[in-house]
Amino acid sequence: MHNLLLISAIILAESVCADPAAGVHVGLELPPGPDNPRNSEGSFLPLKDGRILFAYSRYYGNSKSDHATADIAARYSSDQGRTWTTNDTILVKNEGGMNVMSAGLLRLQSGEIALFYLRKNSTSDCRPILRRSSDEGETWSDPTVCITDEVAYFVVNHDRVIQLKDGRLLFAASRHSFPNGRFNGRGLVMTYFSDDNGKTWRRGKSELSVRTPGGRFYSAQEPGLIQLKDGSILMWIRSNGGCQFTSRSTDRGETWSSPQPSWLASPESPASVKRLPSGDLLAVWNDRESQPTLKKKVNPGRRTPLVSAISRDEGKTWGNVRLIEDDPDGWFCYTALEPLDDGTVLLGYCAYKGLAHSRLVKIPIGWFYQQAKTTE
Q: Cα 61 from chain centroid?
């Protein structure tokens, strides 16, 4: 499979975060601390007053487990992500039996702000919640449960809900179980959508699994979506099959094609994709296949290195592969992406093992388009 998936550019330079000359700025480090064992997966949103809001999972207590106690917290930047407020503002206090986590911010076509997050009550009840704000995040509406047709453990990653050009709100979810108390990553992937600005939600018709040609199941987790220029929708799915798998919908998310392996070679770790002002797609994910020198140093279980790539053909192929983080012992994942009007992109991602430490970075858009150095 790798000969079909391998992106050929081999990067010899150090990671961008170690190169101040690249114009990259690390704006905020969110390390764990006393009564705060983990800060992870977040989402950015530019506000109308010029500030930027970053919402993320702020754990409290003694455990950094996915099931430990957490709130949805926020930091703010008044200078396009170069500096951030030093104190947390709690947007949603823990209202779940376990926690609230995986925030996603979205500017609705109505002008309101939507805040999506997971309310985790137990290993058999984890569902996405929506709150709306009409005053730029100063106050929030009562919660709306987005999945009401079934009570189960659903995963909807941070920064994942999209609004289609026609106004439909859409997200992809993976449904999981815990046989014998252990997480079953195999999962089924499905979509939910709303045509009334998030008041009510309905499930799409497809349930997707990821399989080998011989029928063996791969894992299927943490899907994401982006609408393409022709109106169709691309879904990517985290898997243990050696790459991100992709599926497409041509009917506004009602039905989906069978997941197929993509060009994005990947360990079992999530990817993030956003559209740049140029119209091209930007992907950020873990790809050690394009880093053969690093690959020899990396424990297979690590989510490293962190790389980016550009697609000029709506996700069919990817190029301009760039190295963002290269620590072979790193744990770089759950990336939030936000292109800004000043010609930069904000990235927020987990930066160390255990998902405990988050890093916010500002990178010039032009850096992503530079050609990587290759071997002679």
A: 25
Q: Where are the alpha helices (DSSP H) in the chain?
A: 2-5, 292-295, 365-369
CA 349/CA 352 separation, integer angstroms: 9
Q: Identify the DSSP state of 355.
A: G
Residues in a beta bridge with 286? 306
Write out the two tokens for 116: 């999506």
Amino acid in position 173 = A
pLDDT over 70 (residue 15): no
188 CB-side CA count, 13 A: 9
Rounded CA gap, 65 and 67, in Å? 5
Average pLDDT value for the chain: 92
Asked whether the beta carbons of 265 and 2 are under 8 A apart, the reply is yes
How many angstroms separate the CA atoms of 228 and 237, rounded?
Answer: 17
| Token pair recorded at residue 356 | 């405990």
Q: How many CB atoms sit inside 10 A of residue 20's CB?
A: 10
Instruction: Give Cα 370 distance to the centre of its chain.
Output: 24
The pLDDT tens digits of the residues spanning 110-132 come to 999 999 999 999 999 999 999 99
Find the length of the chain. 376
Cα separation, 190 vs 156, in Å, equals 10
- Range with the largest mean pLDDT of 192-196, 214-218, 295-299: 192-196
Q: What token pair was written down for 163? A: 């609004």
Q: At 130, give phi and psi (nearest 5°).
A: -120, 130
pLDDT recorded at residue 336: 98
In which band, very low, low, confident or very high, does the pLDDT at 375 lie, cut at 50, 70 and 90?
A: very low
CA distance 331 to 278: 30
Hey, what are 51's tokens? 């500030």
Of 217, 227, 192, nearest to 206 (Cα)? 192
Say which DSSP state 284 is in.
Answer: E
* Buried b / exposed e along 59-68 (16+ C-beta atoms within 10 A): bbeeebbbeb
Question: Which residues are CB-neighbours of 214 under 8 A, at least 6 positions away?
Answer: none
What is the arithmetic mean of pLDDT over 220-245?
Answer: 97
The model carries a pTM of: 0.94
Q: Please state, in angstroms and rounded to a whole number, the distance separating the CA atoms of residues 270 and 160.
A: 11
The SS3 call for residue 227 is strand
For residue 212, what pLDDT is reported? Answer: 83
